[in-house]
Amino acid sequence: MFTGIVEDIGVVSHLDNNDSTGGTTMTFTIPADSLLLKDCHEGDSIAVNGCCLTVTSFTADTFSVGVAPETLRITNLGTLVENSRVNLERAVRADTRMGGHFVQGHVDTTADILSVTPDGNALTFRFQPKNRDMLRYVIFKGFIAIDGTSLTVTNVNDADGWWEIMLISYSQDRVVLAHKNKGDTVNIEVDMMAKYAEKSLAGILGSNSSDARIPLLEKMVQRILGRQ
């Protein structure tokens, strides 16, 4: 579990797509003054661009992770090259102040940046998700994790399939999103509470896997008509 408050920006220092296990290993270098690995152990979880990954080895200023093929397919980690910059956050502790929101580190989809528009000293980003179904979990003023950064949705257009967030000046120096441009891809994790709420309501209304995508109001009408 994470909070979406990025601790450091790391750099891909080594990328091995055919390691000793036949998989992919990525090694990241962190800033010299970083505390990210101060209490690190092998097997710990670190979110890399919002993806929960397991530390397989580490030194004072580097750590390595194994990346599964599924992760490479459904996230933007598959596009990383050496010297790419990434957001980093350690797993949350029970005594940590929850400054963002509950982030699992399980990416739901990726999204393309449609536009970046300055607004005073802030930047407004517009995104369109690869999986349009995810839009039903995106609400005005709701939480969303973008490359592992907890952000607030400032505008949603369901018809055209996009939403916007505003990145304040303080955050622009502390997350990788500020350095991305139109056409770049970001990792998206929607608010998991919305998914739990949807599944609970679907259970109450008797939805199953074959009709889970039917809007809940329509399902309620069907049940009422079925009783007549």
UniProtKB/TrEMBL annotation:
NCBIfam families noted in UniProt: PRK09289.1, ribE
Official protein name in the record: Riboflavin synthase
GO biological process, alphabetically ordered: riboflavin biosynthetic process
Record CDD domains: Riboflavin_synthase_like
One Pfam family it belongs to: Lum_binding
GO molecular-function terms, A-Z: riboflavin synthase activity
UniProt entry keywords in alphabetical sequence: Repeat, Riboflavin biosynthesis, Transferase
Classification lineage: Eukaryota, Fungi, Dikarya, Ascomycota, Pezizomycotina
EC number per UniProt: 2.5.1.9
